[in-house]
């Protein structure tokens, strides 16, 4: 109904629409009121996905303006619920479903996608969706949600984004007998056939869309995530969001926390609950950051302690399970099974949870952190909210409001003794839209760890003294479009400094260059220039 009278006449729409012409603002207002009528977040999700199908630009103008309200619906935590019942709420396909049966024909499937200029792909095999486990093809909700944020938060044009699920089956027995399940109903294919599918997919992407197509790996299970990142990071424009994006946002929050606790990173002892993608990614990036502070690598590694499902990660521990990535951080220390006991033994200054075990930060654990430290740092990063290691309320109340807290999914502010604390959302959504935008517009040929560390530092710098005063270790999410643009400009700068950029000539004003590439959410005119003449009215 925002088509003008002239557009209606030219396009033969006259009479097919009610006579009133609405402005985009009027439509936004109505859509927002409709959205707020729903009680359940999952219904809001369906409503918004319907809007995305009907009117993409309106969806994005709304999502950009009301990002704090809308992100928790189209993204974590609600997207987790949506994935768990993706078949049941299914209305219209979105994204590309490629299965193990398509081996040998992946290129042809990419050719079925109607858009030709694809710049960004988010791909999952659905094996570790958030902290919810193996959801197979139901995992499509994640690439769809992540790419919605590419546009809403980063301004990457939606037509340039492609969500992909690589369906190799699922080991989730409930899904195998779920009559709404939309994926292949057999156990996961692993080994050579799986690897060949990934390899063929990446080849096909380059053949179809060119070598500078960004491929973001998302929510793969641990061993595949690390393995595929190592295998492809130097030959494709790719990164793993759960390892590198999460690392970058967590390290940004930790760097910002230093201004509250008034210390350096290297003054700290970091205890990780979990030794998976997120934890190892954060640990590795923290080491890089501490090396920049002047520590040797060994000294930096010594500051990081990991606890996994078998307990403290130590050298030669009897229970084993110390993989190569964890082994780097294995300590010469007695073996301890329980997190609470580890905490009492090593007295960490910072605790970071990323193992998707709800409540892993027990009351005793949080109290101990508060006893050992004046200002303990507690990051409960697991997603969605239901799997957080502790709630914001627990962290603040059990430390009498002294902790510096951040979580992966949003929590409401908490008031303790009359002071209100605003928990930071240490979610990779602060990182991937900006990094991706920067990589795309500069034509970078790789995404490097250096880029993620620069991004952490840049994000931490955007945290103001007023933010810190309220306990926020991230800038407000409401500013995310500008934050992403600044982070992207930073990536562009980095790419040129390191000889990785392809765009020629080098733009002088990097921020303007980024802005010029961002998607505009205002409606465009549908009137061809040949139909306009001086004096013609709207
Ligand atoms: O999607 C999110 O909220 C963050 C993330 O990558 C994950 O938890 O896997
Ligand atoms: Mg993820």
From TrEMBL:
Q: Oxidoreductase: is it a keyword of this entry?
A: yes
- The annotated active site, in chain numbering, is 75, 146
Sorted keywords for this record are: Metal-binding, Oxidoreductase
GO: which molecular function terms?
A: malate dehydrogenase (decarboxylating) (NADP+) activity; metal ion binding; NAD binding
Note the Gene3D superfamilies from the entry. Answer: Malic enzyme, N-terminal domain, NAD(P)-binding Rossmann-like Domain
PROSITE patterns, alphabetized = MALIC_ENZYMES
Binding positions ((S)-malate): 128, 383, 427
Protein's recorded name? Malic enzyme
């Amino acid at each position: 109904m925002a088509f003008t009278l002239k557009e209606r006449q030219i396009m033969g729409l006259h009479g097919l629409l009610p006579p009133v012409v609405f402005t985009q603002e009027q439509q936004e207002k109505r859509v927002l009121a409709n959205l707020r009528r729903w009680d359940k977040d999952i219904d809001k999700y369906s409503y918004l996905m319907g809007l995305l199908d009907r009117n993409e630009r309106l969806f994005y103008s709304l999502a950009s303006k009301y990002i704090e309200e809308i992100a928790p619906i189209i993204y974590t935590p609600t997207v987790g619920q949506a994935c768990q019942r993706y078949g049941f709420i299914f209305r219209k396909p979105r994204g590309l479903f490629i299965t193990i049966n398509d081996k040998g024909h992946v290129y042809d499937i990419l050719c079925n996608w109607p858009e030709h200029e694809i710049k960004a792909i988010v791909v999952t095999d659905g094996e570790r969706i958030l902290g919810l486990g193996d959801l197979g093809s139901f995992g499509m909700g994640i690439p769809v949600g992540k790419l919605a944020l590419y546009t809403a938060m980063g301004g990457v044009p939606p037509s340039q984004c492609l969500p992909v699920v690589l369906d190799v089956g699922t080991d989730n027995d409930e899904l195998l007998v779920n009559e709404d399940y939309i994926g292949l109903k057999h156990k996961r294919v692993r080994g050579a056939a799986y690897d060949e599918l990934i390899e063929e997919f990446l080849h096909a992407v380059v053949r179809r869309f060119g070598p500078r197509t960004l491929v973001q790996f998302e929510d793969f299970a641990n061993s595949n995530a690390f393995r595929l990142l190592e295998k492809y990071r130097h030959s494709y424009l790719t990164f793993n969001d759960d390892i590198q994006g999460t690392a970058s946002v967590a390290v940004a929050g930790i760097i910002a926390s230093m201004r509250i606790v008034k210390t350096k990173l290297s003054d700290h002892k970091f205890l990780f609950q979990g030794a998976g993608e997120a934890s190892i990614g954060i640990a590795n990036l923290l080491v890089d950051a501490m090396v920049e502070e002047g520590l040797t690598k060994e000294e930096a590694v010594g500051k990081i302690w990991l606890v996994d499902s078998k307990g403290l990660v130590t050298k030669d521990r009897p229970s084993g399970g110390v993989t190569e990535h964890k082994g780097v951080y294995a300590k010469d220390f007695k073996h301890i099974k329980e997190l609470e006991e580890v905490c009492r033994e090593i007295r960490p200054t910072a605790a970071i949870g990323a193992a998707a075990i709800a409540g892993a930060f027990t009351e005793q654990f949080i109290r101990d952190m508060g006893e050992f430290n004046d200002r303990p740092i507690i990051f409960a990063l697991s997603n969605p909210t239901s799997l957080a290691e502790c709630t914001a309320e627990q962290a603040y109340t059990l430390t009498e409001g002294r902790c510096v807290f951040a979580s992966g999914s949003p929590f409401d502010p908490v008031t303790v003794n009359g002071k209100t604390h605003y928990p930071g959302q240490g979610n990779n959504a602060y990182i991937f839209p900006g990094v991706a935008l920067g990589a795309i517009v500069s034509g970078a040929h790789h995404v490097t760890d250096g880029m993620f560390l620069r991004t952490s530092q840049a994000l931490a710098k955007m945290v103001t003294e007023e933010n810190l005063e309220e306990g926020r270790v991230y800038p407000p999410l409401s500013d995310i479009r500008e934050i992403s643009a600044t982070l992207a400009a930073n990536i562009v700068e980095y790419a040129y400094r390191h000889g990785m950029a392809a765009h020629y000539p080098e733009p002088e004003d990097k921020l303007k260059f980024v802005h010029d590439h961002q998607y505009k959410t205002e409606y465009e005119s549908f009137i061809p220039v040949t139909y306009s003449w001086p004096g013609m009215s709207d």
